[in-house]
Amino acid sequence: MNSYAIMRINKHKMGTVSRINRHHERLKQEYKSNPDIDLSKVHEDYHIKECSGSYRELITKRIQEVGCKVRKDSVVMQDCLALASPDWINKLTLEQQKEFFRHAYKFFADNFGEDNIISAVVHMDETTPHMHLIFVPITEDGRLSSKKLIGGPQGLIKLQDAYYEHLHNKYPDITRGIPKRVTQRDHLPVYLFKNAAELYAHYEELEEAINSIGLVNNKKKKEEAMRIIRRYAPAMARLTDQLKTVNARVAKLESNLSYSEAREEMASDELIKAKTVISNQKQKILDLQAQQEKLMTIIEKVPESVWEEIKAKKNIKKKKDKTK
């Protein structure tokens, strides 16, 4: 099994800095957008470079130190994600993982200046250990310029290649992987698979409960059915929109596969790799799609009156919680 070097960089203006700060530094009480976060393991997270204040404060301080000119729409922060294939990095000991992230950190420090890095935190509270590194995009000549520093899409490709070389020199079993420019891929959030899997695991229980709603004289059976439906109501309610997302992604993968086949300049071995990755992606998503569609056949049987009753009880609970 191949072990890939993975690095992503996203640029941010000042308006999104605080939100990223709260997420990366685990300053929130809950993380509904990312069910993978295990709050009981947050204490296991650690910093390669400690964050000595809020991102906004540290970014402003660094810009003032250098004397950069700042516009209202300036990119003031680069958010970098560094990790390796889960199967590879999860086999390492904790100290080996720390050494890996220290080595990855060195790449960013050498290329973007350690003084510009304001935080580098490793998250151990999710399925795969990974590092979020934040730096201010200040050039060697003292300008605040993400475009100059990264160099646009082509510059990012070169940066990805350099990152791979940096890791490969120390870890020869790590490979470059297939660039996004080849597969044109992006990934479905893990929670889509988790939501469908949770419901699918209880498919027969849900089907029996939903079919029991229509019973006229069996009050006990109906009450038990309502209890089961209420338990899974939030996940069922989310499924409709999630199915639309998956359907759109299947269509996109079809288009990407055709696009890859049409790339005459692509080397034949690269094309084969691209088609393999896209086909594997497609099969995984098609399996999810099939699960979702099967679940929808029973969810659509839930009477509208049941949804209204669940919603009403939820609103009553919210009011009670507010008055406490």
What can be said about this structure in brief?
The protein has 324 residues and is of the alpha+beta class. It has helices at 14-24, 55-66, 86-89, 94-112, 146-150, 152-170, 180-183, 190-201, 203-212, 219-262, 268-299, 304-323; strands at 3-13, 46-49, 75-84, 117-123, 130-135, 174-175. A hairpin with a 6-residue loop joins strand 4 and strand 5.
**Alpha-carbon Rg, integer:** 24 Å
Based on the structure, what is the oligomeric state of the protein chains? Answer: single chain
Shape: elongated
Straight-line distance between termini? 54 Å
Report strand order across the widest sheet: 2-4-5-3-1-6
Order of helices and strands: EHEHEHHEEHHEHHHHHH
Low-confidence stretches: 181-185, 259-271
SS element count, helices: 12
**What percentage of residues falls in helices of 4 or more residues?**
55-70%
Tell me what portion of residues adopts beta-strand conformation.
Answer: 5-15%
Describe the main β-sheet briefly. Answer: 6 strands, mixed
How would you describe this structure to a colleague?
The chain is an alpha+beta fold and 324 residues long. The chain has twelve helices and six strands. It has a six-stranded mixed sheet with strand order 2-4-5-3-1-6, sandwiched between helices. Helix 8 packs antiparallel against helix 10, helix 9 crosses helix 10 and helix 10 packs antiparallel against helix 11. It is elongated. About 6% of the residues have low confidence.
Write the SSE topology.
Elements: E1 3-13, H1 14-24, E2 46-49, H2 55-66, E3 75-84, H3 86-89, H4 94-112, E4 117-123, E5 130-135, H5 146-150, H6 152-170, E6 174-175, H7 180-183, H8 190-201, H9 203-212, H10 219-262, H11 268-299, H12 304-323
Helix pairs in contact: 8-10, 8-11, 9-10, 10-11
